[in-house]
Each structure stands twice: as C-alpha cells, then as structure tokens.
Amino acid sequence: MRFPELARRFLELEPRLAEGPEKEALSLLHAMLQELWREVGARPGEREGLEALRNLYKKAPKMEAPRVAPGLSVGERAPDFALPDAQDNLVRLSDFRGRPVVLVFYPLDWSPGCSQQLDLYQAELPEFERRNAVLLGISVDSIYCHGAFAFARGLTFPLLADFHPKGEVARRYRVWREEDGFSERALFVVDPEGVIRYAHVSPYLHHIPPIEELFQALDALRRE
Amino acid sequence: MEPVVLYGTSWCAQTQLLRRLLERLGVPYRYVDLEAHPEVHPTLRFLTGGRLSHPVVYVGGEVLVEPTPAELERALWRRGYLWW
C-alpha cells in the first residue's frame, strides 16, 4: 500500500515547516482528509438518528469543575437506600447483600463525561459479571430520562433515580454538590457485607478513574 | 507494518474504552499519555487541524480524532491490522 508511506513522509516533514499560515493550511488540509475517511467509511444513516443523539455530548457544554465533596471513606458502612430504576422497580442496596456492588454516582444523563463513562462500563460488563459484581448507576435524573438515556446508549445495567427528595442518597454518601444540584462523579465498591472497600471521588468532574482500579478492588475482595 | 499509536489520558473514559478494545482485538499498539509527553503536542496539533483532543489513534497513516469503536475497527480493517 502506498498510503502509509505517503503519510509517513508527510509526518516527517512537519518539524521542518516554519510556523505560519502555510503550515496551518497544511494542517487543516490533512485534518480534512482524515475526516473524509470517517465519512466515506460510515454505513448509510450510521451518523444520523440514534447515533447523532448518542454523540450529542461531544458538542454539549463542558463539565470540568473541581471536586467539592469528599465522599464516604473506605471502611465505613455503605448507607442502605431504596431508589427506582427506569422501570420504576425499587432497588435496594441491601437486595444485593452477599455480592459486591459497584455504585457509580454520576452528575447527569447525557452529559459528556457520564456518557463516556457509562459506555465504558457497558463495554466491560462481562468483566464485572465475571467478578459476580452488581453495577448500579445513580444520578438525580428521573426514571423516564434514565430510560431514554439507557435505550439510546444500549446500557443494560440499572440506572437509579435519586430524584425525590433530590440527591438524598448522594448526600448520604457525601458526594452532593449543593451549588450545582447534582452529585460528584464518585465510585464506591461495597463488599458482600455492606462495607465500603474502595472509594473514589473524581478530582475534576470530567475525570474518570482507570477502570483497572475498579477491577483490582473487586479482585481483592475475591481473594479474601 | 507501523505500530498503531493511541494518544490519550489516563482519566479519559474514551481512551480507556479504545485501549481495551485494541487489547480485545489483539492489535498491538503503543500508548502515549498526553500529560506525561507534552513534547508530542505540537505534532499532534498539526495532524488534527490544530485541536489537541483525546483520544487520537494513528493507524497506518490515518489519524483518527475521537473515533467511535466502529470507526476505529473500520480503520484497522482498511489498513490491514485485522484480517480474519
């Protein structure tokens, strides 16, 4: 194939180009060429409809504020709760006693970090299942919003509505952001006896901790 | 064959998603953390039309800016990194 060779020569020339409009024009031309690949390769309709909805977050307002709430600590008992999922089934933390539970507090459905974070967990669902872990997403969105969000993204694990009284469970876990009216991005691994064994509140709202940390926390529980 | 290179950050969910996809597909790749390697920023900006976004994946001469998993897989097929 000739393409990789041409691309390599193009790349090698970059450090020798003087800064200025000519270099910027070449950069833009190169980026346009790359975007063409994306468009040519897509199946008809692939970038419209539901896919466009799924990708709305890429143009949405950013959510990058620093952490304000500390979250509960490792070793503390995880407060029990009863919250409805998208089908209005009441889900209690204590329903899962005997299994590890991963609580995923996230700010809002459809927002940039949350969409990507939940996509990642959905793609890795077999890894959670292999560890017998239950995955529960929690935000202040309504059950109907959760239903639409989960459908659009193909999320199959429960999303719970901490909707009324708004953010009550997030407050109990000390991850509530009063000024914003939504929670921190926070993860808790609760062991089969109901004790928090891993806790992480993102230092910035758009930061998602490496998923390997979660798997390590779950694996540590299994080794005990 | 040139190695696939993935530029990203450790806290970016999309970076993590694509890294794990490459690992599942068995495609060897080099990971460059953009926070640990600011020296690559100018070249990356040049290749992406001025925007330093993440993840960016270099696949046999193609520069994919924040690709979906499907877009990355298609580029891997197109450039001969997948063949079964």
UniProtKB/TrEMBL annotation, chain A:
Gene3D superfamilies this protein is in?
A: Glutaredoxin (3.40.30.10)
Task: Identify the PROSITE patterns for this entry.
Answer: THIOREDOXIN_2 (PS51352)
Note the CDD domains from the entry.
PRX_AhpE_like
Q: Ranges for the Thioredoxin domain?
A: 72-223
Entries under InterPro entries matching the protein: AhpC/TSA, Thioredoxin-like_sf, Thioredoxin_domain, Tpx_Peroxidase_subfamily
Would I find Membrane among this entry's keywords? no
Keywords, ordered alphabetically: Redox-active center
Q: What is this protein called?
A: Peroxiredoxin
From TrEMBL, chain B:
What are the residue boundaries of the Glutaredoxin domain, all occurrences included?
4-63
Which one Pfam family would you cite for this protein? Glutaredoxin
Which InterPro entries does the entry mention? Glutaredoxin, Thioredoxin-like_sf
* Name of the protein: Glutaredoxin family protein
